Amino acid sequence: MNTKPIIALDFPGEKEVMGFLGQFEEKLFVKIGMELYMQEGPTIVRKVKEQGHDIFLDLKLHDIPNTVKSAMKGLAGQGVDLVNVHAAGGRMMMEGALEGLEAGTPAGAKRAALIAVTQLTSTTEQRMHDEQKIALSLKESVLHYAQLTKQAGLHGVVCSVLEAQAIREACGDDFLRVTPGIRMLGGEAHDQQRIATPDGAKKDGSSLIVVGRAITGAVNPVKAYQEVCNLWEAN
Ligand SMILES: O=C(O)c1cc(=O)[nH]c(=O)n1[C@@H]1O[C@H](COP(=O)(O)O)[C@@H](O)[C@H]1O
């Protein structure tokens, strides 16, 4: 798997995406999430893919097993490299997602890696207790979801950097820890609660980092991306 920082293309439409990507000379690893996909659909996936970039399609599926299986079957034909579901959907749902992905991947094509979101990086332990009524610590909840995800046969999880090391120890180094909530030192957190710097992420056990606004909101996105890469690759 490509280990470059994944840039979250959280833009309202194709025009903004192409304007952004046009500033880069190298091939990137990008994330197409709900904001963009709801506007542009599979077309934007195809167009970004045609430019040679790797794609994490982040639609965070969470439904009954049969529905997620069928949806994944459809997504599998879009040629993306990484896709996700919510671990809270349960083991059967995750197994269904994997089956759908296998069934929908065209013969001879490489199957996308499948990961599950544990606790969103915008969640605090207090909010998890109050709103989800989970009585564990946040780290225990994330670890529980990671182990459930591993039992279901998926390739890894989305978590914050704060839990990455514990997941590596419990689930092994090959089990992906994909960590959003990345900020440069002193950068604005926005709606994120569990944040870390790119070098902190590397030191604390992330396998891949997802970076959105620290790059897309920068005056010079190419320079910001290079700074993130330098910190991520330094250790
Ligand atoms: O699955 C994700 O990618 C995801 C999970 C999570 O727990 N937290 C999280 O922020 N994300 C995504 O990662 C990106 C983070 O964006 P920034 O906060 O702008 O860096 C967004 O596109 C989120 O949708």
UniProtKB/TrEMBL annotation:
<feature type="active site" description="Proton donor">
    <location>
        <position position="60"/>
    </location>
</feature>
<feature type="domain" description="Orotidine 5'-phosphate decarboxylase">
    <location>
        <begin position="4"/>
        <end position="228"/>
    </location>
</feature>
<dbReference type="Pfam" id="PF00215">
    <property type="entry name" value="OMPdecase"/>
</dbReference>
<feature type="binding site">
    <location>
        <position position="183"/>
    </location>
    <ligand>
        <name>substrate</name>
    </ligand>
</feature>
<feature type="binding site">
    <location>
        <begin position="58"/>
        <end position="67"/>
    </location>
    <ligand>
        <name>substrate</name>
    </ligand>
</feature>
<dbReference type="InterPro" id="IPR013785">
    <property type="entry name" value="Aldolase_TIM"/>
</dbReference>
<keyword id="KW-0456">Lyase</keyword>
<feature type="binding site">
    <location>
        <position position="10"/>
    </location>
    <ligand>
        <name>substrate</name>
    </ligand>
</feature>
<comment type="pathway">
    <text>Pyrimidine metabolism; UMP biosynthesis via de novo pathway; UMP from orotate: step 2/2.</text>
</comment>
<dbReference type="InterPro" id="IPR014732">
    <property type="entry name" value="OMPdecase"/>
</dbReference>
<dbReference type="InterPro" id="IPR018089">
    <property type="entry name" value="OMPdecase_AS"/>
</dbReference>
<feature type="binding site">
    <location>
        <position position="213"/>
    </location>
    <ligand>
        <name>substrate</name>
    </ligand>
</feature>
<keyword id="KW-0665">Pyrimidine biosynthesis</keyword>
<dbReference type="InterPro" id="IPR001754">
    <property type="entry name" value="OMPdeCOase_dom"/>
</dbReference>
<feature type="binding site">
    <location>
        <position position="31"/>
    </location>
    <ligand>
        <name>substrate</name>
    </ligand>
</feature>
<keyword id="KW-0210">Decarboxylase</keyword>
<comment type="similarity">
    <text>Belongs to the OMP decarboxylase family. Type 1 subfamily.</text>
</comment>
<comment type="function">
    <text>Catalyzes the decarboxylation of orotidine 5'-monophosphate (OMP) to uridine 5'-monophosphate (UMP).</text>
</comment>
<feature type="binding site">
    <location>
        <position position="192"/>
    </location>
    <ligand>
        <name>substrate</name>
    </ligand>
</feature>
<feature type="binding site">
    <location>
        <position position="121"/>
    </location>
    <ligand>
        <name>substrate</name>
    </ligand>
</feature>
<dbReference type="InterPro" id="IPR047596">
    <property type="entry name" value="OMPdecase_bac"/>
</dbReference>
<protein>
    <recommendedName>
        <fullName>Orotidine 5'-phosphate decarboxylase</fullName>
        <ecNumber>4.1.1.23</ecNumber>
    </recommendedName>
</protein>
<comment type="subunit">
    <text>Homodimer.</text>
</comment>
<feature type="binding site">
    <location>
        <position position="212"/>
    </location>
    <ligand>
        <name>substrate</name>
    </ligand>
</feature>
<dbReference type="InterPro" id="IPR011060">
    <property type="entry name" value="RibuloseP-bd_barrel"/>
</dbReference>
